[in-house]
């Protein structure tokens, strides 16, 4: 199979590139993924300045991504592109540069018959099909990924539409029943779900002392300096719901007295500890911060993370030539033998339903 082709194995789609394998992930495992009920979208409240038929078109694009088993990042890029090309309107004309392009994505004749280009679902499917053939699309800045498909003059043209696209996709998918990102805020219930996952072998905690922290929360016991922030519990639950197996190596270091890494200045330690989690494996893959499963989790979480949240291993990704273009999470250096997520400096909770 040549570079840029899509392969599907075990329900997960992968983009094969010359530089390695970058995960696209499956719709069932994508945070916030799934179908949008178009019947109710048109009458819903405006989102980020878009309303009515514009939101119906956004929902149609999201559904096209879901049918192709692509994750939220693909849907956001496609919605962002539609915003930048037509303001999410199904235009039957082009612009001053090329009046032969039509539709939501302003597609030319090489995309097929006029009727197909004016069909938002077919147009979105055509865009997404070309998107996943772009080597490294899932890890490059979103506007550049869109530019590689649209071949417009300014590679940065779509950047200003990215925040609105994230907001629209998040709003429409969070209203869909059963979304993977719909998770409650009850710490005890979350910990109990994690203990169930640990019991059946899906969640594997490297050291018993960290599993004991989850067990205490599940039992309703409040042990001083041994708690776990509810957002960290939510992140672990989302990981468990999205990956076949999840490995956790570190949670609250103040509870254990461990002063590895940044010592008492670590996000695992400050403010009573429990505001960070280290994943060492996802779906059977040992994590480096650059591997497909790490990228998949980061891309899944970023749209719902609060400002000020952080993800480690940025220098590992830089060395691998991976740039994520994250909106909410700040990246920082960390060792390349795990994936670190923290909310010690975050401003607010996760943006999840439930």
UniProtKB/TrEMBL annotation:
Xref: PROSITE patterns: PROKAR_LIPOPROTEIN (PS51257)
Keyword Signal listed: yes
Record has Signal as a keyword: yes
Signal peptide: 1-29
Record key words, sorted: Signal
Protein name: Uncharacterized protein
């Amino acid at each position: 199979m040549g570079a840029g082709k899509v392969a599907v194995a075990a329900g997960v789609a992968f983009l094969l590139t010359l530089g390695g394998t970058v995960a696209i992930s499956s719709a069932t495992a994508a945070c916030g993924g799934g179908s949008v009920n178009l019947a109710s979208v048109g009458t819903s409240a405006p989102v980020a300045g878009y309303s009515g038929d514009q939101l119906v078109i956004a929902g149609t694009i999201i559904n096209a991504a879901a049918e192709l088993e692509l994750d939220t990042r693909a849907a956001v890029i496609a919605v962002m592109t539609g915003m930048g090309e037509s303001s999410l309107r199904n235009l039957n004309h082009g612009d001053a540069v090329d009046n032969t392009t039509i539709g939501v994505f302003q597609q030319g004749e090489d995309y097929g018959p006029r009727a197909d280009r004016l069909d938002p679902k077919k147009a979105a499917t055509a865009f997404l099909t070309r998107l996943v053939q772009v080597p490294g699309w899932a890890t490059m800045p979103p506007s550049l990924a869109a530019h590689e498909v649209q071949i417009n003059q300014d590679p940065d043209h779509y950047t200003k539409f990215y925040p609105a696209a994230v907001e629209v996709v998040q709003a429409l998918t969070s209203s869909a029943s059963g979304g993977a990102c719909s998770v409650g805020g009850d710490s005890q219930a979350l910990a109990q779900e994690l203990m169930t996952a640990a019991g059946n072998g899906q969640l594997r905690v490297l050291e018993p002392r960290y599993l004991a922290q989850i067990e205490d929360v599940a039992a309703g016991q409040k042990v001083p300096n041994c708690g776990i922030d509810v957002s960290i519990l939510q992140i672990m639950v989302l990981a468990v719901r999205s990956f076949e197996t999840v490995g956790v190596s570190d949670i609250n270091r103040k509870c254990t007295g461990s002063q590895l890494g940044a010592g008492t200045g670590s996000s695992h330690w400050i403010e009573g500890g429990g505001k960070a989690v280290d994943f060492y494996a996802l779906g059977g893959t040992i994590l480096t911060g650059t591997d497909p499963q790490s990228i998949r989790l980061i891309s899944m979480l970023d749209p719902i993370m609060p400002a000020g949240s952080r993800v480690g291993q940025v220098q590992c990704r830089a060395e691998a030539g991976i740039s994520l273009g994250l909106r909410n999470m700040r990246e920082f250096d960390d060792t390349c033998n795990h994936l670190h997520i923290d909310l010690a400096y975050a401003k607010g909770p996760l943006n999840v339903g439930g």
